[in-house]
User: What shape does this take?
Amino acid sequence: MGLLDVLLGRTKPVRPDLDQLFGLSSAAITLQAASELRPTGRGSVCFAAVEGGAFAEIQQELHTLLATETSSDSYGYTWLLSRHDPEDMTGLVTDLHAINSTLEQHGFGPQLLCSLVGFANPAGGPSLALVYLYKRGSFYPVCQLPGEQKRDNARELEIAALLGNDLRIESDHARWFPVWGAPGMAE
Assistant: This one.
């Protein structure tokens, strides 16, 4: 970064660090100990699909190896959903890491958008997703109110503060986008 960048307020972009995903296992323990939130055993990876045989072949390989489910959202993004026993957070995180790594290694890193892991509130309160922003190398919580497309922003800030020692939390709250209806969100 040069002097001109500093004067103009430009910053060097954070490089993706997929190993940050492994922090989700300790974050899940922290959430269980400090709140009513429990892992759902579901997580997903979102990316912009690319036309072509190579991309389709990689998607099929991931589907076969990891038993993922594929879906598309209303914005045209593709989601690969992985399901595990809720107690197997390590297995779920390993699958999400494998999906991201495979796409990255085959040159499709620029298409990766985010990954998420869902948490449910057995007491019927708001559900939660911890979202990993691929291009920022950071996480943020999305706390969706039951049955609505509304978020509990105060709870999101509380969760972010709680997980600050487990995960690299995204400091720019403007990047905390909702992920309504994303595969892996608790329902």
Notes: The mean pLDDT is 86. The helical segments are 3-8, 23-34, 53-66, 89-108, 153-162. The chain is about 35% helix and 25% strand.
